[in-house]
Design goal:
Strand order of the largest sheet: 4-3-5-9-16-11
Helix content: 25-40%
Number of helices: 19
Structural class: alpha+beta
Shape: globular
Largest sheet: 6 strands, antiparallel
Radius of gyration: 27 Å
Distance between the termini: 72 Å
Number of strands: 17
Length: 595
């Protein structure tokens, strides 16, 4: 026990020393910049060590101001004036008027400082229209009549051109009507899907808000509950299901056919410069259905009462289906208002190169009470407001569609557009929420094999790859057994399973199988809500069920077009191209010219 005590003291001492060292570097940097003549907002901008990396931690901005000032661990007017910031700005953000800014008050200023520096405080007594009201109250929304569709929906060709290429939102009214999911009452969900395990988040999203998780931490410290327990316990609490939708539920949800025809043979190449060139698709369909839009992730959101997200953008195109209740969607075109926004992370949204938008980013403001004295640039911002009702699909804003998708007329001619496919029949690929992309995982394995001069992916090398860092497979008791089982599965696609896959054979393994080692072998380790959990991939039995349904739809589509005197789809049942499915360079070039 005395040895453990000394180790704890030593670890604590090292941690304090690291903090002192980091604080010392910050103070030194502040002094150097001030000697060069920097002051005020320019000085603070230079000390923003988080810009372009990640969202600042809540205590971080307070430490920046304290490093500029008297270094007493507090942010007072003395620190503020040492930085030569306007005194009136200190008073405005000192909401409790106690003569100091607590960490939340400093954070509010820091995250909005781009426009706080030019705010007009004479407006305090005569605030602008919409001040401290819900987002959008500053003016009427843009007309939305042309953005709302009723059945029959337009051909994907027209829809993609207007909404995907044009970056416009849309609502598909009644898209789920007639599907079993419309009968998912609380009683039905408890009875049929109560066993489903789900991840939880706050229903009123508060990014970098320490209090947003209070109810959730009390209700379920590991942020997971099965649906039955969730529906029994969540009433009146700030708790929301945000989880991958299980396949058993996805069979009862429609994927509107108007969203098909995102080519799986060619894609817009993010490595090229705008206007982008075309390239072979990185995620071809396992059975060669080039008309089946690549769905990156499909989620289940569930909650009662009011929910609200933060004002943000996502990297991929988003589709949301509402089964009960009403949602209000606020859409602002970030391309038009790039200079009117201070992103929390910064340098992630790239207006001039949108295919290379990174991750996601958000804007620090209270959507229910927008401070238009600080956020004065938003007063003139045009926006769309769309109201979603039960059964509606608003496009763009729990279905993530791969951002590089491109509508291919040749592939679209083969698509079963007469009826909607079940969501479960779509080969939703990235089903490991928060973990390594399976394609990246395969590319990393390929790179490791080439770097080490290995002809085959042996069990020893595979074990090393999926056991690095804090990987789940390196920490569970039966890790070696699980690794061997995964290796034997992927090696069954090799010409010599005993030796393992060659570099060229890696692409023979369906990406749905690579999802498991990509998640459980992620060196960053498990999310807190996934501790003790295991990833279950889409196996061959479930994939056959999916393919059988697709073939049934293709057969009915062919019969329908023949009856109408049209040429039937030219897709043969059981065709297979696997991960090696490609488009020739000449065909890709021709598609680019047609575009």
């Amino acid at each position: 026990s005395w040895l453990l005590g000394w180790l704890v003291l030593l670890a604590g001492g090292l941690q304090r020393q690291l903090l002192v060292t980091a604080r010392g570097r910050l103070e030194q940097q502040a002094e150097e910049l001030m000697r060069k003549g920097l002051s005020g907002y320019d000085l603070v901008d230079k000390l923003d060590m988080w810009f372009g990396q990640d969202t600042p931690p809540i205590p971080g901005p307070a430490k920046v101001l304290d490093a500029i000032g008297n270094k007493d661990g507090r942010v007072t007017l003395e620190d503020w004036t040492s930085a030569k910031l306007p005194t009136a700005h200190f008073d405005y953000f000192d909401k409790d008027s106690d003569g100091r800014l607590d960490k939340d008050e400093v954070y509010s200023w820091f995250m909005q400082r781009k426009f706080a520096r030019t705010m007009n405080l004479s407006e305090v007594d005569n605030p602008p229209k919409g001040h401290l009201q819900r987002i959008g109250s500053w003016k009427e929304p843009l007309p939305s009549e042309g953005l709302i569709y009723h059945k029959p929906y337009p051909h994907p060709r027209e829809f993609w051109k207007r909404h995907m290429d044009g970056y416009l939102p849309a609502v598909l009214k009644g898209a789920q009507h007639g599907w079993p999911c419309m009968n998912w009452t609380k009683e039905e969900l408890t009875k049929r899907f109560g066993w489903v395990d789900a991840k939880l988040e706050p229903k009123v999203e508060g990014r970098n808000n320490n209090t947003a998780y209070r109810d959730l931490d009390k209700l379920s410290p590991n942020h997971r509950l099965n649906i039955s327990d969730y529906l029994r316990l969540e009433q009146g609490k700030n708790v929301y299901v945000v989880s991958i939708i299980p396949q058993v539920m996805a069979w009862e949800v429609a994927h509107p056919s108007v969203l098909l025809c995102g080519s799986r043979s060619i894609m817009v190449d993010r490595r090229s410069k705008p206007p982008y060139k075309l390239a072979k698709h990185e995620y071809p369909h396992e059975s060669g259905h080039d008309w089946m839009t690549h769905v990156f992730e499909a989620n289940l959101w569930m909650g009662t009462g009011r929910t609200r997200s933060q004002f943000h953008y996502d990297k991929e195109w988003n589709v949301n289906c509402l089964l009960t209740g009403t949602k209000r969607w606020f859409f602002l075109n970030a391309f038009d208002h790039e200079e009117d926004i201070q992103w929390a992370r910064g340098n992630k949204f790239k207006a001039k190169n949108p295919l290379n938008n990174a991750w996601t980013d958000w804007i620090y403001l209270e959507p229910d009470s927008v401070d238009l004295i600080v956020q004065h640039k938003l007063r003139n911002a045009d926006y769309y407001e769309l109201i979603q009702e039960a059964g509606d699909y608003p496009d763009r804003c729990v279905l993530d569609v791969f951002a590089g998708e491109y509508l291919d007329e040749q592939s679209c001619s083969k698509a079963p557009l007469q009826e909607d496919l079940p969501l479960a029949a779509m080969d939703t690929l990235y089903m490991t929420q928060g973990y390594n992309d399976p394609l990246n995982h395969v590319n990393q394995i390929r790179g490791t094999m080439k770097h080490n001069g290995r002809k085959h992916l042996s069990l020893k090398l595979f074990t090393k790859i999926v056991s690095e860092g804090d990987a789940i497979l390196s920490r569970v008791k039966d890790g070696k057994k699980r690794i061997k089982k995964i290796w034997e599965l992927i090696s069954s696609y090799a010409e010599d399973p005993a030796k393992g896959l060659t570099v060229d054979e890696l692409k023979k393994v369906p990406l749905r199988l690579w999802c498991k080692p990509a998640a459980e072998g992620d060196p960053e380790g498990a999310l807190p809500c996934d501790n003790g959990e295991e990833y279950h991939f889409c196996d061959d039995s479930e994939y056959k069920k999916m393919e059988d349904v697709v073939q049934e739809h293709l057969a009915r589509s062919a019969a329908s077009t023949q009856k109408e005197g049209e040429k039937p789809p030219e897709e043969a049942a059981g065709s297979s191209s696997g991960l090696g499915s490609q488009v020739g360079e000449r065909e890709a070039e021709e598609q680019q010219n047609r575009r």
